[in-house]
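Lecture notes, part 5. Sequence design as translation. It can be helpful to think of inverse folding as translation between two languages: the language of shapes and the language of residues. The source text, in structure tokens, appears below.
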């Protein structure tokens, strides 16, 4: 049975971030298998911006159609998305729609698919942050209106159970937001804050909503509260520990596809 995999990401228009934060995750996934693993991006806006610069990246439907045209019969789709949000729902819908093109079409879990995944990422974040009196670490996620937003407070709880209440989880567009995190910083009497993205890619949101110089950014608001703020501008995808978590999901997906189909 001719097999392939597709690595599907939201994408980013920030080229430096694409190379730093997405490319190494793709490389780690490709390292798990000898199968061809084309890339797909889910964001039409980003694919359009990249196409104008001469970089053509298909959407998931396009990538799957191309593989079917090459005679591929079994495909594993591994998303680099963090949670089961609206983007993941869209991927799932495309996979359902394209099932008829293949003998087998499998979809992998997002980074924070289950409780164990949340605990694993909490352990990675705790390992990255030395505990220092008076210093707090904030990991800033995107956040969503989708019920999957609950992974952010779940991650916070996992960190607290690990004895790391100095590591806080916030979101740009979901809950907890900046006001909740500021209150928590006050309660912890933190004077210094390290801000880092809890996003695959340190793109637009990290550059502007997190680290931007305008008064509404997290950096500016925390500085206005009297904190010294350092920003780390790299996405989760740049971390080898996170790449390994994705690779574990992908490995499980490939093994399931092979076992179910006797290949
Ligand atoms: Co956004």
């Amino acid at each position: 049975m001719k097999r392939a995999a597709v690595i599907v990401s939201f994408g980013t228009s920030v080229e430096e971030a694409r190379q730093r934060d997405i490319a190494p995750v793709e490389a780690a996934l490709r390292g798990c298998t000898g199968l061809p693993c084309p890339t797909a991006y889910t964001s039409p806006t980003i694919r359009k911006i990249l196409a104008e610069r001469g970089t053509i990246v298909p959407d998931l439907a396009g990538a799957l159609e191309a593989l079917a045209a090459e005679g591929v019969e079994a495909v594993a789709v591994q998303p680099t998305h963090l949670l089961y949000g609206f983007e993941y729902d869209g991927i799932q819908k495309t996979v359902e729609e394209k099932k008829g093109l293949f003998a087998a079409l499998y979809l992998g879990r997002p980074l924070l698919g289950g409780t164990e995944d949340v605990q694993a990422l909490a352990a990675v974040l705790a390992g990255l942050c030395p505990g220092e009196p008076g210093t707090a670490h904030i990991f800033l996620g995107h956040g969503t209106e989708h019920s999957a937003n609950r992974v952010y407070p779940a991650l916070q709880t996992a960190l607290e159970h690990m004895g790391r209440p100095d590591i806080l989880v916030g979101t740009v567009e979901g809950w907890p937001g900046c006001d909740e995190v500021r209150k928590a910083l006050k309660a912890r009497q933190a004077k210094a804050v390290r801000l880092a993205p809890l996003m695959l890619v340190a793109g637009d949101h990290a550059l502007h909503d997190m680290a931007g110089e305008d008064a509404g950014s997290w950096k500016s608001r925390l500085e206005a509260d009297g904190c010294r703020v350092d920003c780390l501008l790299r996405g989760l995808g740049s971390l080898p520990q996170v790449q390994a978590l994705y690779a574990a999901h992908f490995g499980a997906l490939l093994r399931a596809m092979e076992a179910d189909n006797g290949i």
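The translated text above is only one of many valid answers, since several sequences can fold into similar shapes. The longest strand covers residues 3-9.
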